[in-house]
């Protein structure tokens, strides 16, 4: 892998660590993220509490580590929903008749007219808060984006020579779609989705920040940031580190996603 | 992708980081940017000056209506005291003085109260204050159409009244009621223009008319309430530092729900005074030469953790006593309030008449005794540390709206203490409507709350079995405590016509409550008021423990 910038390596390393923390948080901290200590609230970083303690005396570092799973789940899960939903609708629009295409595309135009976060808020207002609802809400809000891109891909692939050749060879319609159209239409979208993960992660944190995502006492970066803002004059560490975790994750996801995209376009960074 | 260019996530995360930086910067401003230097001393110094409009930053607990008789909201005194006067005034020692009543007589049987009223008092609409007006107010409080959540309950023994002279009203009660005069000093029982009550009762919410030092101006819901000085005001309360109209030209109460926003508004000079100073910021206020801090403890029931005594596991007094002992109240209160709240000493606060406290120190922190009581009650430790009895785990559901960060903190810390003793508490996040419905119907194990009033009769309101919510009537007995002995003590204290007898009964009632442990009393809630040093002559309404601006002036 010659010619890859060190920044990309670094970002990839961060992502690997984050995924590891999400899968096995116990490997990264020996402390219980829910262990309350009324006598040691808002303590600054120390050897015992690397990133200090929060308003209930809980260890901020282990709460960030244990919060990784929820935060990544929100980012990747939401985009997975958007990808599946958007992929299906996009292919349907690309292959369907004028009526089906029109219907799907007009609906997606309406969806695109609203910011994702606003759509997610509407979904949450109807379905209620919580981690899973927030995940679905952000995913649904992102569907129009992906539907549009997949449709464009499908349209161009549909008219490509290899698909015409497959038809000419007498392959059945569904088989052509499944074996040839779908994989080729989705591949570039997958790369774009890695960048979308960053957006979705921030949206998930924003929802928790507003008190609509993960409820307490479960650790989640956005809700930590939300509580921390009341104590910022006393305990800078409480807000800064979860904020840094969000920023670092989003930057890493974006750097790696961008590299993947450039590579797929035949350019090198 | 049609949207979401690669730079978008950067932008969003940058926004989050920026907002963080902004709040940091705003806090930095507290140290330097607090305006005029600290020349002025504490309290009233120098000669009061007239003029200026004072802006108060209040929390987001905005009343739904400004008619005091229709309210039970915590901020009623702050928003309504400028507009409304009361029949009596309570001094800091708890003694009652004449205000809109010039004197009163109580019959020996405690059933008839004869009020002589002050002459020359006028409401803001020009109508006169007299015996008819007082009677109209009593009738308005108890009129079912008023739907009074508090005033009606406070005057429940009121039977009827007879106007025996232009300024004399004879009030008859159905039963003796020892707290009657005390509650009349509260702003919830403030006096509304009788003309408005008779001619346009539907306007009392939106356009309140009283006789107070300030005239209602405008109310932009969700934003602010403005008032202007009443130039004719010559009937200030007896405890005031001056007579005649208020010094301020006007008053604005601005609702700033976010704790950090409210504090920063004071620090940046956007408002002159804030109520409900976030405890975390009190040290900042105290160390700022341009700011001053003052507080008053509210009378009534301390802020408490209610335990539902009508269902398992808290139907067993041993389990209630155990959780009371398991919780380290001092550690929790100190950490949540940064040392600004005092740990409750019993079932009423020390600023309440007939306070008896906890002389035997039974509401202490004693984990060994907590464990012993739970063992005795048959709850044995299971493999994960949570106790089990007859195959049932020792669990309890706590309701939390998340609206008050300190309440969530209290529940989270109490949850940890309970888990140590083997009781698993699950905190359910609910909307305030759901919380209200479920506490009323008894579908909860743990809840939190407070009741502020200036008499020990608060114990009857909170713990008499007569006040358990039924399908027909919403009562305030949240813990659903039903104890015949306590009922008798509270009823007798209520009907006592002699102060000594009453005090003795309330002392026994408080001791009985400590043994019954229907709630964990946590802290005596104070009003934490911070102001710029240019604000002078801040006063208090002692009957509730809230800030009062009648004597206040701006030293510009």
Topology:
The complex is a heterodimer of chains A (269) and B (556).
Chain A: H1 6-23, H2 60-95, H3 98-112, H4 116-127, H5 131-158, H6 161-168, H7 173-209, H8 221-228, H9 236-264
Chain B: H1 7-32, E1 53-58, H2 76-80, E2 88-90, E3 96-98, E4 101-106, E5 112-117, H3 131-142, H4 151-154, E6 158-165, E7 168-173, H5 180-183, H6 194-199, E8 214-220, E9 224-229, E10 250-255, H7 259-267, E11 273-274, H8 282-287, E12 291-297, E13 300-307, H9 317-326, H10 329-337, E14 342-343, H11 367-376, E15 380-381, E16 387-389, E17 392-393, E18 395-400, H12 405-421, E19 424-429, H13 432-441, E20 446-452, H14 458-463, H15 484-495, H16 499-516, E21 519-524, E22 526-532, E23 535-536, E24 539-541, E25 546-548, E26 553-554
Parallel strand pairs in B: 1-10, 1-11, 18-19
Antiparallel strand pairs in B: 2-3, 4-5, 5-7, 6-7, 8-9, 9-10, 11-22, 12-22, 13-20, 13-21, 14-21, 15-16, 16-17, 23-26, 24-25
The helix count of chain A comes to 9
Q: Tell me the CATH architecture of the largest domain in chain B.
A: 3-Layer(aba) Sandwich
Total beta strand runs of chain A: 0
Q: Helix proportion of residues of chain B, in percent?
A: 25-40%
How many domains of chain A?
1
Q: Largest chain-chain contact? A: A-B, 50 and 42 residues
Question: What is the N-to-C order of secondary-structure elements of chain A (H for helix, E for strand)?
Answer: HHHHHHHHH
Strand order of the largest sheet of chain B: 8-9-10-1-11-22-12
- Just give the CATH class of the largest domain in chain B: Alpha Beta
- The fold-level CATH name of chain A is MetI-like fold
Terminal residue distance of chain A: 12 Å
CATH superfamily of the largest domain in chain B: Periplasmic binding protein-like II
CATH class of chain A: Mainly Alpha
Number of domains of chain B: 2
The H-level CATH homologous superfamily of chain A, spelled out, is MetI-like
Describe the model.
- The complex is a heterodimer of chains A (269) and B (556).
- Chain A has 269 residues and is mainly α.
- Chain A has helices at 6-23, 60-95, 98-112, 116-127, 131-158, 161-168, 173-209, 221-228, 236-264.
- Helices cover 71% and strands 0% of the residues of chain A.
- Chain A contains nine helices and no strands.
- The relative contact order of chain A is 0.15.
- Chain A has one domain (50-264): Orthogonal Bundle (MetI-like fold).
- Chain B is an alpha+beta fold.
- Chain B has two domains: 2-297 and 527-554, D-Maltodextrin-Binding Protein, domain 2 (3-Layer(aba) Sandwich), CATH 3.40.190; 300-524, Dipeptide-binding Protein, domain 3, CATH 3.10.105.
- Helix content of chain B is 29%, strand content 22%.
- Chain B is built from 16 helices and 26 strands.
- Chain B has a seven-stranded mixed beta sheet. A four-stranded antiparallel beta sheet of chain B has the order 4-5-7-6, covered by helices on one side. Chain B has a four-stranded antiparallel beta sheet with strand order 14-21-13-20.
- In chain B, strand 24 (539-541) and strand 25 (546-548) form a beta hairpin.
- In chain B, helix 9 (317-326) packs antiparallel against helix 11 (367-376).
- Chains A and B meet through helix 5, helix 7 and helix 9 of A and helix 1, helix 10 and helix 12 of B.
